[in-house]
């Protein structure tokens, strides 16, 4: 056969025609234009703040010219040296880093052990009440993490820190510092908060596990230990590693619990060290610490993404063997239920009851009839220095509530809509690399812990840049920061929803003469109404409980409920602060129930998806 030789001129013409064809298709497909606009918008909203704070770590900041011997805005290695190698580096970085890593590692170990045990009891045994526990055990993950911290201080607070004493102190039981503050209570609270995450992830894997594998091993005479460690555990490894890495990444950026239980005794983590640096106007040092936090978070979650790809090797395909087979516990059914109930008691009932009782007591720890009052809820003319009425009659509370609804609500609605548009653009865009870039950029905030992301926004928007004015102190800054932070969840929700919607309804409308806006508003949005509602409510619940962004970016004029409660804690108005936290928990719970009604799934199933 004779070889065919193509003329280079012909090849160039052919390539040129292909490019022209792609451009024509791109120009006539509105999804391409939308994808480009969204990519530009999110590049500025997400990538630019991260680059800005990275530049701050190498740029002389305002007021530091004397220390750096350079003019403001010039390049410097001063902040890197001060944070990493100077005499202050132990206080600024290395001790907080050790504290953070030790808390994260111990939390991961205990939460995984406890979560795997409870997941196995709920999903693979006939434990008494297991269907009820499937939901009840998840509730601690839905409560704000610092709910437990406030309940802990209400009970265990000692005289090391001023203000009202804890209940045990009032009863004559002196609690040592290591119990009241620092490492131990932080780990206990984080374990309570994150164990449900392990239950969700590992429990889902256990339900999908093919029981035929166990049956075959049992028929061949394998003992239970061999089945557990040679079959079940290896196949559960992706779920175990995924839950461990997610918990580790969250612990790195956790702020509220160290703020409440560590800051008063100078037990710093990376997040509180970052907060201290910003509070003392050491912006360059704060930038270096933020980069360290970002780096750890990104490495951890990138490893998790790699593990999710590896998980495909562990997929098992079974037919009828994939069924709900429960191991009979016999006489251990009741003790197993008691163990699970103990977790619900410690993780849900005890914290909420403690916080509520603290809000109706004049003096903490005195359980006498004359000590109970509703003054901190609806009282007037209170004998306190800066708070003269109960929270429900206090203007500051309602201002914070309005700010919360306005800021978090606006951000949630915009996030849900943008998430759906991102999903539409990614799946309809005819230029593959633009769709992939949009997918990755909108996921990027998930790789950055919240406290570091807030510092990045502060770095970019604290001063004006070209046509963009300084936004610090304005509600719009909190709104756009929340939009950016929630985009990983909103965009994934939109992509997932749009995956299930084919092009046929739009094509039919196009043939009928409907323009693009009509197709989106009258076809896509109505069909995706339930996912859109869920995509709005999930960011709302997350924003209601959020602390990291608000503690950095909010000022008293833009107080939301979370920062308002933390300010009450700083003023030692513990009863009022606990009342505000209960209101936040109530709103979060009601939002969860609403999502459950809209999506038609139970709490546990909804959180898994």
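^ Assign residues to that structure.
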């Amino acid at each position: 056969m004779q070889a065919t030789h193509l003329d280079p001129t012909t090849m160039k013409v052919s390539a040129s025609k292909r490019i022209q064809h792609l451009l024509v298709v791109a120009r006539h497909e509105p999804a391409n234009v939308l994808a480009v606009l969204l990519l530009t918008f999110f590049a500025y909203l997400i990538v630019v703040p991260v680059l800005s704070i990275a530049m701050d770590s190498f740029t002389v900041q305002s007021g530091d010219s004397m220390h750096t011997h350079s003019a403001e805005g010039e390049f410097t290695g001063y902040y890197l040296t001060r944070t990493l190698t100077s005499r202050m580096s132990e206080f600024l970085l290395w001790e907080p880093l050790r504290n953070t890593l030790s808390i994260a590692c111990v939390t991961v170990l205990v939460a995984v052990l406890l979560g795997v045990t409870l997941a196995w009891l709920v999903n693979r045994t006939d434990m008494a009440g297991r269907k009820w526990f499937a939901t009840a055990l998840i509730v601690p993950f839905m409560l704000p993490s610092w709910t437990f911290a406030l309940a802990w201080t209400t009970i265990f607070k000692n005289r090391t820190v001023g203000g009202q004493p804890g209940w045990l102190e009032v009863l004559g039981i002196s609690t040592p510092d290591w119990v009241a503050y620092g490492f131990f209570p932080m780990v206990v609270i984080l374990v309570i908060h994150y164990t449900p995450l392990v239950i969700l992830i590992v429990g889902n894997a256990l339900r999908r596990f093919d029981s035929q594998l166990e049956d075959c091993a049992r028929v061949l005479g394998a003992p239970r230990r061999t089945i557990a460690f040679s079959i079940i555990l290896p196949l559960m490894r992706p779920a175990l590693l995924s839950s461990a890495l997610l918990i580790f990444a969250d612990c790195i950026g956790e702020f509220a619990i160290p703020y409440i239980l560590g800051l008063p005794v100078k037990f710093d983590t990376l997040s509180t060290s970052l907060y201290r640096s910003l509070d003392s106007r050491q912006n360059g040092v704060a930038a270096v610490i933020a980069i360290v936090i970002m780096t750890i978070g990104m490495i951890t979650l990138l490893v998790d993404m790699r593990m999710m790809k590896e998980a495909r090797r562990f997929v098992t395909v079974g037919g009828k063997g994939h069924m709900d087979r429960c191991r009979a516990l016999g006489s251990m059914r009741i003790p197993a239920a008691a163990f699970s109930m103990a977790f619900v008691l410690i993780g849900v009932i005890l914290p909420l009851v403690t916080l509520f009782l603290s809000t109706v007591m004049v003096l903490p720890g005195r359980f006498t009839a004359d000590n109970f009052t509703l003054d901190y809820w609806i009282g007037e003319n209170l004998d306190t220095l800066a708070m003269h009425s109960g929270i429900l009659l206090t203007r500051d509370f309602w201002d914070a509530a309005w700010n919360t609804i306005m800021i978090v609500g606006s951000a949630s609605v915009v996030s849900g809509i943008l998430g759906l548009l991102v999903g539409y653009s990614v799946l309809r865009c005819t230029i593959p690399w633009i769709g992939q870039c949009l997918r990755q950029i909108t996921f990027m905030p998930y790789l950055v812990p919240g406290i570091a992301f807030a510092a990045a926004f502060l770095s970019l928007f604290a001063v004006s840049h070209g046509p963009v004015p300084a936004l610090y102190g304005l509600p719009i800054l909190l709104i756009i920061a929340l939009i950016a932070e929630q985009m990983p969840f909103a965009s994934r929700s939109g992509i997932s929803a749009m995956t299930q919607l084919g092009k046929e309804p739009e094509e039919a409308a196009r043939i009928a003469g409907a323009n693009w806006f009509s197709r989106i508003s009258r076809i896509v949005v109505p069909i995706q109404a339930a996912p859109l509602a869920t995509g709005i409510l999930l960011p709302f619940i997350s924003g209601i409980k959020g602390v990291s962004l608000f503690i950095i970016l909010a000022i008293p004029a833009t107080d939301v409920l979370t920062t308002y409660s933390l300010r009450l804690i700083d003023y030692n108005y513990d009863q009022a602060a606990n009342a505000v936290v209960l209101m936040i928990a109530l709103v979060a719970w009601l939002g969860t129930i609403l999502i459950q009604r809209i999506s038609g799934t139970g709490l546990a199933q909804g959180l898994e998806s």
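Residues 234 and 515 are 53 Å apart (CA to CA).
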